[in-house]
Amino acid sequence: MASLLFQTIEQISREKHIEPEIIVAAIEDAMVVAARKYYRTEENLRSKFNADTGHVDVYAVQTVVDEVADPVREISLSDARKFDPSIEVGGEITRPKPTDVLGRIAAQTAKQVILQKVREAERDTVYNEYHTRVGELVNCVVKRTEGPDLIVDLGRTEARLPKREQSRLEAYNIGDRLRTTIRAVERAAKGPQVVVSRADPVLVQRLFEMEVPEIYDGTVQIRAVAREAGERTKIAVESRDKDVDPVGACVGMKGMRVQSIIRELRGEKIDIIPYSEETVAFAQKALSPAKVTRVQIVEPEEKRLEVIVEDTQLSLAIGKKGQNVRLASKLIGWNIDIKSEEEKRREIEAQMAALTSPGTALTELAGVGPKTIEKLEAAGITSIERLADMTPEQLVEIPGIGEKMVEKIHQSVAAYFEALDAQNATASEQTATEGAELTGEGDASLQTSEGSEGVVESQEDGSGPAEAESNREAGEQREAQDEVPAEQKDEAESHEAAREASAGEEGSEP
User: Fold this and answer.
1) 412-463 pLDDT, tens per residue?
2) How do residues 301-330 score in pLDDT, each as one tens digit?
3) Could you give the C-alpha distances from 428 to 257, 433, 434, 439, in angstroms and in order?
4) pTM score above 0.90
5) What percentage of the chain exceeds 70 in pLDDT?
């Protein structure tokens, strides 16, 4: 019996990687729970594993006191000395409780307690082993699916590959071998405690460390990695040796090294960029493959850069759905505001126009007195637009301007611009209404013109009443002339010839 129990303990210890002492303690606790449930007692019970007999003995324990307040857990000194004459106050009297009568229900309870204790011990063991290995590259095998998540086998334990840690380009099948990084180890998780990742930027870094000997020995260092898993990765590298090209070392001969990593990542694009301590130079390299015209630091405290590129390079610099500039921003740790040459030129022109524009006089501002306006003008604020750009802190610094006056100025400026917006909106509505009216008049004129043209055409066709009558009479006269007899025509012609002859004779006389 003893050997069988020892064998069971050793087997569980090997399978679960738990110390035998932890399993023994779990068995002792289980026997106490089973005995308490069977005897239904409030006694202080303890159990002890007997290595000689292989049995687990259960005892009821009472503490020796001078005055007994709890008869179940305490015993007087006189009564205790009946069991042990040498015992003193503070000692303990133990009396064995039979365990062979516990029965099936108690045994089942003990089994559940033992399994629970073993699971807790196993989880502690897993946590202690893996919580120091976060970021480490591990090999695993896809074991099963649980909803959108994958359960993978690490060998000694199971790990979880959540949906958010999976690459977009990859599809997984049961039995696939994967390289992952340990992302986190959770102590209180219900399922597997170890969380692994295929989307972590650290995965790319670990793959480069495996493929590039110069990175492994420290000659080339990886300074930053920005990644959108399944699509693109930017990695910045730096060389400690001036004779070693960091980009060339990572690419390898004919691109063999980087191509091996790309295959492992199922076709994910990788940009290898030389690292620079100078932010401007680093930003220019980080936006590759786009060519940057110039980089300017706009707000050092907020880490904001303004990048200008040629008009033809703007879409390339931004990338698909802003991916290139987004990854570059993550890589250098600065916010990037990217503009084309044309956008920058228009912006400068607008600023120059604003500077040269006199703006609206402060006297147009309702609710602000003349004395306050004099103080503002003395401080160089001569327009409402300039006043609107001032912060409350800047206004308070002006002599004679207090916090209450700042609040009053703020309200007046807000009211002015609200009225201006309302005025512009009303003007826009009036313009739209006038345009609609003009459109209606134009249609009416068009209809009138079309009617006039119809009248003109009818007159030209002879359909007008006066002209039709005149044309009819002229036609009748022409027809009457055509109907003169031939004899009258000849007689008329001969009279005409005689008149011409007589005229000629009169003209020839002296």
Assistant:
1) 888 888 888 888 888 777 777 766 665 555 444 434 444 434 433 333 344 4
2) 889 999 999 989 999 999 988 999 999 999
3) 64, 9, 10, 17
4) no
5) 81
- The more confident residue out of 157 and 226 is 226
Q: What six digits make up the tokens of 156?
A: 């000694």
Count CA atoms closer than 13 A to 133's CA, side-chain side.
15
Sheet harboring 335-340: ordered strands across?
Answer: 292-299, 304-309, 335-340
277 φ, ψ to 5°?
-70, -25
Q: Which residue has the tokens 């334990």?
A: 157
Question: Helix, strand, or coil here: 67?
Answer: coil
What integer is the mean pLDDT of 210-227? 93
Nearest to 415 by CA among 379, 371, 436, 384: 384
Closest by CA position to 173, among listed 134, 144, 137, 130: 144
Topology (CATH) of 276-357: GMP Synthetase; Chain A, domain 3 (3.30.300)
Residue 470 pLDDT > 50: no
Residues 6+ apart with CB under 8 A from 342: 311
CATH class of 2-127: alpha beta
Query: Is 66:80 a contact under the CB 8 Å cutoff?
Result: no
Place of tokens 């005229």: 503
From CA 187, how far away is CA 192, in angstroms rounded? 10
Q: Which burial class, exposed, middle or buried, applies to 26 when counting CB atoms under 10 A from its CB (0-12, 13-18, 19+)? A: buried
Which CATH code, of 1.20.1250.20, 1.10.150.20, 1.20.120.140, 1.10.10.10, is assigned to 361-430? 1.10.150.20
**Which CATH code, of 3.40.50.2300, 2.40.50.140, 3.30.1490.20, 2.60.40.10, is assigned to 131-135+140-197?**
2.40.50.140
Helix (H, G, I), strand (E, B) or coil at 58: strand
Domain boundaries, the chain: 2-127, 131-135+140-197, 276-357, 361-430
- pLDDT at position 208 is 95
